[in-house]
Amino acid sequence: MVRALLFTLLLAGSRLTFAQQTVSAGAPPASPTRVILWADSAAHNISPAELMRTYAPIETKVDALPPAKRKEVTDALMEHSNEKNTAVESQGSQPADGFFYNVTELFAANGRADWIIISPMGEPNRKALDELLRRLTVFYQTDRYAKPMASPYSNEYFTNFGRPREKRAVRTGDSTISTLEAAAATTRPDTVKYVYFNQLDLKNVPDVVYRFPNLEELDLSKNGLVKLPARLTADLPQLRRLSVLFNQIGNDSVFITPNKHLLALTLQGNKLTRIPTSVRNARNLESLWMGNNKLAELNVKAIKRLKHLYDLNLYNAGLTSLPKQIRKLKHVRVLDLYYNELTTLPKQIGNMRRLEQLAVAHNKLTSLPPQLARLRRLDTLYAHHNPLATLPTAFNRFKAIRLLDLSYNRLSAFPDQLVDLKTLESVDLSGNNIQVLPTSVTQLSSLKHLFLRSNPVTRDDAKIGPYAKVIDQLEAQNTAVYY
Fold first, then answer.
1. In terms of pTM, does the model score above 0.90?
2. pLDDT tens digits along 201-221
3. Lowest mean pLDDT among 163-177, 283-297, 320-334
4. pLDDT value at position 462?
5. Angle at the Cα of 372 (from 367 to 375), degrees rounded to 5?
6. Source organism's superkingdom (predicted)?
7. Which helix (H) or strand (E) holds 288?
8. DSSP secondary structure string, 120-184?
């Protein structure tokens, strides 16, 4: 579990220049952090096996820590990773012809990186590889530190630099076109409803798409588009779903004409710092995905009049705060804020009365507003991987909550508020610092799943520990307890 967590935390990059100095096997370098390829380890008189004996895997150390300390370590590694990602990104654009690579970081006990050893997948462009090594050299030679531990440790993960080429996903089926050749050749353009032009290295939207008057879905994802032309919504009157996922479209290059037919728009992974104002012209839009951009703010004004918008995805959008105006998104039912930099939520979020699912996991929230309990339709709340130490007293007022994920926070006690939630079916409190399992938890009559892994309360064999009777009673009530 910890390995998977660390993989998630460190999902972005590290690499450095080749070492020229020969060192004894397993010995830390005399100079600042050295970076080599695994393939060059023999040339540097380095034994990978001996290195791995000297630098124990971090997960073996983290698993042995108390939950609070474990959280501290993972937070420190996340901060180190974020600094590293920022350093790589701030030095210029990343290559379109990117690649995946494996990283092994070897840290001294004081948290300073001794070695960075990389292994690229496939045969990456040499220029791109050298550029990555150069950027990471800049980062590590500023004497960056990760988390100090009692002894040297290693951390290993898999990530990418730029956008790695991948095998194109070609979709087939009735009324479906997936190649430019087929689009030009068809003699029955009126029968085509689905066009999938993903991963074709397109720089512009090809004119051939306008051959299809009954087109309902257009996928232009993973190309090199820099503009979303107005003609797409003006000349395709049946277009319902449009995706330009992972392109190069900027703020002033999204043109949507007034229409009532577009229902779903995916703008994820572009170069947007705000929601394009022309989005408001899609009057019946139901789903808007803006994740994996770098939004300077959430400009609610662009979407507040969309009365049918129920699904708003802002995953990894770079948001550091939410505006009070979020209360004007009265029709949103699903709000995804995973992997942002939020430290607080505005109390006005409690005015989003139709909200049913809220995801604020992997942020920096130290508290949740009590106004969330006003959301009488909220049935799912994901708030895991935050530094939450307590919950608002008002949380006992939820009327429809079924799933609550508070794992990997800093809770030191089972929240009393949960006992009053009669609709609650699944609770995840894994990875906290919970010391006691109160008998009152058996009052949760609808509870089907209770996750308590990686807490002091379940460190020993829970079935013979002091809370065995509580667990037995829960299981007798058909509640599955995971410890």
1. no
2. 999 999 999 999 999 999 999
3. 163-177
4. 67
5. 165
6. Bacteria
7. strand 287-289
8. ESS---HHHHHHHHHHHHHHHTT--B----SS-EEEEEEEEES-B---------TTEE-SHHHHH
The DSSP output letter for 250 is B
CB distance 324 to 298 below 8 Å: no
H or E element, residue 359: strand 357-359
Cα distance between residue 27 and residue 47, in whole Å = 10
pLDDT of residue 26: 44
Run of H or E including 80: helix 67-89
Of 276, 338, 327, 335, nearest to 309 by C-alpha is: 335
Q: What is the pLDDT of residue 442?
A: 95
249 pLDDT exceeds 80? yes
**Helix or strand holding residue 482 (H, E):** strand 480-482
Distance CA 196, CA 182 (A): 11
Q: Is 475 helix (H, G, I), strand (E, B) or coil?
A: helix
Q: What is the pLDDT of residue 3?
A: 40
Question: What would the mean pLDDT of 254-278 be, rounded to a whole number?
Answer: 98
Residues in the chain: 483
Burial of 335 (0-12, 13-18, 19+ CB in 10 A): buried
Ordered DSSP codes for 17-73: PPP-S---TTPPPSSS-EEEEGGGTGGGT--HHHHHHHSEEHHHHHTTS-HHHHHHH
Burial of 428 (0-12, 13-18, 19+ CB in 10 A): buried
Instruction: Indicate the residue type of 473.
Output: Q
Closest listed residue to residue 232, CA positions, set 190, 278, 169, 189: 278
CA 14/CA 35 separation, integer angstroms: 10
**What pLDDT is attached to residue 145?**
67
pLDDT of 411: 96
